[in-house]
């Protein structure tokens, strides 16, 4: 029998394994450690060992990540102090911070940003994430959007020019690699998509070495998104600790993989390397482990989690191959955050009542929307009719 926390909202489930909110947040911080350490090694220590930056510049990637966590805590403390005039003592503010868990969104925010993000841009992102994305909604447990993602999205859309001018995503060693040409793998993919050229391994993967480099994380990208290995270690830890459901990231990554495989075959007869390239590029793995498993802005029941992950996977591919958004993950997740509560509500009805007359309309609407998105993604990614014409002719259909 599951136990529930009573009292004032938010109400967070406490499982039979004794996983209270403090335990969950502590385990999330532990799971982030491999990602933080690899990010610092790749963008700081290794570059310093190559002789391309000095000692203090070596510390900057780690400082950026930790500063994200510190700024989030600081801004929440200031918010509590300003808004609660009756409880302004240090102990009162400290007590509130103890149940607000401000550091984790801040750390995730730092990991979402490029290595040479200016400190003042990080401050803007932290303000948008903490104050606008979290506290103005009512604080922990009440926010509609993932705070870190909202802060990242705001500075990504409005201040990206300042980030690029400061150095962008390429670290001190990557700027000397001619094949990178200042672009991330998804940036190169967008260039090929817009030019109409077929997707080839030589064009998309070889400039960065091979797919093993993608898995390890020695490719350009945001601080925390490049190493699928480090993220996977954190994800396995969370799954073993029963903090997250393993099937949520698997469904999301699997959806992106399968759809990318179909699009790769349609757009250029690409093999399995292409969907592998697709899931290892950008923020797919990071979002799968640390963002779509977040307990506040995503569904809470099993069916809802699966539906959420499916839709998110379709939208990610849709934005990548149809929209003018090479990454696709952040925009998709912010959009899906809006529908998390309806999905949670209707999937709970379907799960408890089964597929009866009262639940068929809910299931039909969800299935219809998913089918429309699937078909549109495949058609819009390339002229599907043109691609299938030779096959239809062979079958005698055309």
What is the mean predicted local confidence, pLDDT?
A: 83
Nearest-angstrom radius of gyration? Answer: 22 Å
Strand content: under 5%
Largest sheet: 2 strands, antiparallel
How do the strands line up in the largest sheet?
1-2
Low-confidence stretches: 1-17, 383-398
Oligomer: single chain
**Structural domain count:** 2
Number of strands: 2
Helix content: 55-70%
Tell me the span between the first and last alpha carbons. 60 Å
Which terms summarize this structure?
single chain, 398 residues, mainly alpha, 2 domains, two-stranded antiparallel ribbon, globular, disordered N terminus
Structural write-up:
The chain is mainly alpha-helical. It folds into two domains: 21-166, no CATH class; 185-219 and 244-393, no CATH class. 65% of the residues lie in helices and 1% in strands. It contains 19 helices and two strands. Strands 1-2 form a two-stranded antiparallel sheet. β1 and β2 (13-14) form a beta hairpin. α1 packs antiparallel against α2, α2 runs parallel beside α5 (119-132) and α12 runs parallel beside α15 (302-321). The radius of gyration is 22 Å and the shape is globular. The chain crosses the membrane at residues 23-41, 61-83, 95-113, 119-137, 144-163, 214-239, 246-266, 272-291, 303-322, 328-348, 360-379.
List the helices and strands and how they pair.
Layout (H helix, E strand, L loop, with lengths): L2 E2 L8 E2 L6 H29 L5 H29 L6 H9 L4 H10 L6 H14 L14 H12 L1 H7 L18 H11 L5 H4 L6 H6 L11 H13 L6 H22 L4 H8 L3 H7 L11 H20 L7 H10 L1 H14 L6 H22 L2 H12 L3
Antiparallel strand pairs: 1-2
Helix pairs in contact: 1-2, 1-4, 1-11, 2-3, 2-4, 2-5, 4-5, 4-6, 5-6, 6-16, 11-14, 12-13, 12-14, 12-15, 15-16, 15-17, 15-18
């Amino acid at each position: 029998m599951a136990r529930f926390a009573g009292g004032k909202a938010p109400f967070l489930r406490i499982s039979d394994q004794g996983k209270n909110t403090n335990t969950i947040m502590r385990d999330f911080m532990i799971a982030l450690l491999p990602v933080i350490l690899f990010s610092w090694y790749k963008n700081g220590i290794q570059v310093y060992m190559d002789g391309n930056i000095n000692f203090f510049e070596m510390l900057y990637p780690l400082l950026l990540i930790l500063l994200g966590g510190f700024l989030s805590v600081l801004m929440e403390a200031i918010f509590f102090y300003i808004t609660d005039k009756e409880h302004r003592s240090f102990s009162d503010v400290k007590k509130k911070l103890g149940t607000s868990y401000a550091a984790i969104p801040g750390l995730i925010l730092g990991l979402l940003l490029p290595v040479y993000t200016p400190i003042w841009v990080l401050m803007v992102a932290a303000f948008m994430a903490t104050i606008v994305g979290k506290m103005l909604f009512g604080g922990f447990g009440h926010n509609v959007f993932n705070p870190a993602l909202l802060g990242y999205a705001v500075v990504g859309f409005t201040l990206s020019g300042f980030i690029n001018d400061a150095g962008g995503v390429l670290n001190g060693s990557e700027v000397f690699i001619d094949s990178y040409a200042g672009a991330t793998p998804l940036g190169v993919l967008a260039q090929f998509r817009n030019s109409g050229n077929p997707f080839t391994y030589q064009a998309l993967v070889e400039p960065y070495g091979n797919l093993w480099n993608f898995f390890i994380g020695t490719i350009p990208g945001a601080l925390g998104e490049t190493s699928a290995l480090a993220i996977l270690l954190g994800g396995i830890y969370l799954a073993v600790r029963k903090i997250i459901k393993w099937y949520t990231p698997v469904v999301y990554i699997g959806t992106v993989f399968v759809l990318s495989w179909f699009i790769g075959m349609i757009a250029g007869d690409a093999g399995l390397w292409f969907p592998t390239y697709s899931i290892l590029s950008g923020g797919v793995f990071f979002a799968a482990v640390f963002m779509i498993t977040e307990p506040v802005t995503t569904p809470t029941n099993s069916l809802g989690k699966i539906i959420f992950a499916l839709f998110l996977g379709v939208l990610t591919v849709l934005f990548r191959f149809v929209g003018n958004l090479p990454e696709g993950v952040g925009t998709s997740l912010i959009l899906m955050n809006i529908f998390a509560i309806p999905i949670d509500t209707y999937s709970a009805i379907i799960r408890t009542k089964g597929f009866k007359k009262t639940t068929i309309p809910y299931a039909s609407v969800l299935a219809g929307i998913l089918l429309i998105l699937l078909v549109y993604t495949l058609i819009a990614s390339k002229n599907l009719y043109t691609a299938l014409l030779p096959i239809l002719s062979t079958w005698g259909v055309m």
